[in-house]
Write a structure and sequence with these properties.
Length: about 500
């Protein structure tokens, strides 16, 4: 017989989280204009990272931490410091290879004051860096067995990266200001709400949450939270209308300026945004999952492949309630001035059918005014939480998450107790996972001894398929049904299946 099996070269692009690591970034901030640090009121930091080099088992990245400090000087006046600390590090994993297409994201776990004196404040931030990536695998898969080879075919779906791009764009907004105030400091975070594909492009919908801290003529601090909604069309050459999109947004730079015409004032805001975009198209492949030959033994080589594809994305919202009690040596709180450094760290997730369980920590600094001491003070807050969300997932799914605090409400219960309610939003990318066994090589073995009997009998086992019965009898599934017309499927086990070889 003519033995010519056919193989198809197939490339799959699997989206997955490969590894995580932590980096410690330090910075020294010095007061400007000869002022001295009397009391630190607020410390916060924000970070971004981008890939630099990929080696076997190692992915290097560069990053930046933006430190922000509000402090009172010896004269009781408010001041702000803003400092960028650049750093670089690496993530190691056996799963990293030259075919890995990295997609880093980072978040601040904790920011601490290492030391402080009148002329310097030393800070340290712990940065959690996650390496999400597209893992490419190329494999030759059997799609046709050749003449004389009976095949059982199957089909699987897989993802292929069809477009990827990096785009930077500017978002502008303004906020009307009442009264005579000075913009002391600002903190901004960007949240991706939705991304949908178009031919060779995608539409990004998101919002920027800005916390702006003002100072009035009397030196009192106040806060205003402003949300900038935006829609942006980004290029993605190769994307189709039904592609599944993945986007990672970060704020590279933000600029705030206060302008006035003598009667009205407005805070002008400008954000330089960086978008990393990847588009995936769903494809399918019909392949041979099992083979046999009546005349020859067949030698096969098989390989198990993992298939991961971006299924969907959602944004989950919730409210976290908590309370903080001031230290007995702290001044009592009469007025809440501001809440800065609002961060959300997700420490654990668990997936069950139609539900995701989250555990994490909300952190912030509460700046308050005490009438008794006539001073501005602050307290650090950490609120642990756990909650469940009804989401369309199954236990075999994987998720990639990124959390944000979008607003905090406070209320002084007593002078030394403050109630806190934090509104959070969690971006969730849901990944569908599947494992398949495919035939990667097929060789012709020794000739089989053809039974000389008039017929063969096979006693079916419970759960056995028609293909397995035919393979055992050395015939085709169609002939099994033709020669056993009373056979009913599925097989219960115990059925006598006959294969006739000599018919009169």
């Amino acid at each position: 017989m003519s033995f010519e099996p056919t193989f198809e070269a197939t490339r799959t692009d699997n989206l997955m989280r490969i590894s995580s690591s932590q980096a410690i970034v330090e910075a020294r901030l010095k007061p400007l204009g000869g002022t001295s640090i009397s009391r630190v009121l607020s410390v916060s930091s924000f970070c971004s990272v981008s890939p630099s080099e990929i080696f076997s088992h190692e992915a290097r990245y560069s990053g930046r931490v933006n430190f922000k400090v509000i402090y009172a000087c010896s004269e009781g006046k408010n001041h702000a410091l803003d400092y960028n600390a650049d750093f670089s590090d690496k993530v190691t994993s056996e799963g990293i290879s030259a075919d890995t297409l990295p997609l880093f994201n980072a978040s601040i776990i904790d920011t601490d004051i290492v030391s402080v004196d009148v002329g310097e404040i030393k800070l340290a931030s712990v940065v959690l860096v996650n390496l999400d990536a597209v893992q490419r695998q190329s494999i030759d898969i059997l799609t046709h067995g050749g003449e004389g080879v009976y095949t059982h075919e199957d089909k699987f779906n897989f993802s292929r990266l069809c477009a990827e791009t990096k785009e930077e764009f500017t978002i502008s907004d303004n906020l009307a200001i009442e009264g005579s105030v000075f913009a002391l400091a600002h903190e901004s975070k960007i949240i991706l709400l939705n991304v949908r594909s178009q031919t060779d492009s995608c539409i990004i919908e998101g919002k920027i949450v800005s916390d702006i801290f003002f100072e009035d003529e009397e030196g009192q601090i106040s806060q205003k939270t402003h949300i900038t909604n935006f829609t942006h069309e980004a290029g993605a050459i190769g994307a189709s209308d039904n592609a599944r999109m993945l986007a990672n947004l970060s704020i590279k730079e933000s600029r705030f300026s206060l302008e006035s015409d003598g009667e009205k004032s407005a805070l002008l805001m400008e954000f330089e945004v960086c978008a990393l975009i990847k588009a995936f198209e769903e494809q399918s492949l019909s392949h041979v999952s099992d083979v046999f030959s009546v005349s020859h033994e067949l030698v096969t080589e098989q390989r198990t492949i993992e298939l991961r594809s971006l299924k969907s994305r959602t944004v989950i919202t919730d409210r976290i309630d908590g309370q903080v009690t001031l230290d007995k040596n702290s001044a009592l709180a009469d007025t809440i001035c501001a809440v800065s450094g609002q961060t959300l760290n997700i420490t654990a997730t668990r997936i069950s059918t139609n539900r995701i369980d989250f555990e994490g920590l909300v952190s912030c600094n509460v700046v308050y005014f005490s009438q008794d001491s006539n001073t501005k003070n602050s307290v650090s807050v950490e609120l642990p939480f756990s909650f469940s969300s009804n989401t369309q997932v199954v236990e075999t799914n994987e998720i990639m998450v990124r959390g944000h605090v979008v607003g905090i409400q406070t209320k002084i219960r007593r002078g030394n107790e403050i109630d806190i309610k934090a509104d959070i939003e969690i971006e969730v990318e849901i990944i569908e996972k599947e494992t398949r066994s495919v035939i990667t090589n097929l060789k012709l073995g020794a000739e089989r001894v053809i039974p000389s009997s008039a017929f063969s009998i096979h006693i079916a086992r419970a759960g056995e398929t028609l293909w397995e019965v035919a393979k055992s009898l050395g015939t085709t599934p169609e002939l099994v049904l033709t020669q056993n017309p009373k056979l009913t499927l599925p097989l219960n086990g115990g059925e006598r299946v006959i294969a006739y070889r000599h018919l009169k």
